[in-house]
Amino acid sequence: MKDKRFLATFSALVLLSGATLFAQEAAGNSGNGSNSINLELYAGYGVATSNTFVAGVAETIGGIFDAISDSMQKKVSDGEDGATKTKTLKFHDSGAFILGLNYHFNKVLYAGALGTFEYFEISGGDDWSAFSVLANLGVNYGWKYVKFYHELGAGMCGFITSERNIYLPAMNLTWLGLKVQPAPHFWLYAESSVGPKGLLTAGLRWKF
Description:
This protein has two helices and nine strands. A hairpin with a 5-residue loop joins strand 8 and strand 9 (about 200-205). It is elongated and about 50 Å long. The model is unreliable at about 15-35 and about 70-80 (pLDDT under 50). It has an eight-stranded antiparallel β-barrel. It has helices at about 1-30, 50-80, and strands at about 40-45, 90-95, 95-105, 110-125, 130-140, 145-160, 165-185, 185-195, 200-205. The chain starts with a helix and ends with a strand. By secondary structure, it is of the alpha+beta class.
C-alpha cells in the first residue's frame, strides 16, 4: 500500500512539474503579445495496453511454474503419477485511465507528459496494479475543427503486486490520432497506439 501511495504521489508530482513549466512558458508568450492557446489538458480511457500484455504473460508463466511445482510435490508425497496441469486464470483488466498535459510550440509541434493507471483482477493468481509515466513529443496537422496527430513517448512503467514490484522502461507510439472540436477550447479525440495508452483510446481535450 505504501508503494502505491508513493507511486501515485510521484506520478502526480511529475505531471504537476510539467504543468508548472508549461504554464510559465505560456505566461511568457502572453507577455510578449501572443494570444495563442498553448496548453492542452486531456483525460482518456484505453484498452489492449502493453501493460495488460506484460501482466498477463507474467502471471501465466508464474502459474505454469506453480503447477509444475505442485505436480512434483504431489508425486513425491502421494506416490502418484499424474499429468501436469496449469492454473486456470480468469483475467479482468480495468483498462487504462490516462491523464496528460501538452504544450504546443506552434501549430504543428508539441511536447508533454502523461500518466496512466491500470488494475488487473486475476482469479487463481495475484492481482496487479500498473502505472506509467511518459514524456512525449508529437505533431498535428489538418483543418480548423478536425486534426490528425502522431506521438512518440518514453518513460517508465511499474507493476505492483502483493508479492513483488517490477519496474521497466516504457515507450508509447501513437501511430494515428484524430481530434474533433465540437465547442470552443474542447476537443474529442480517438487514437490508436502501441504501448501503455492502449491499442484503442478515446477521451476529451481542453486547450487553454
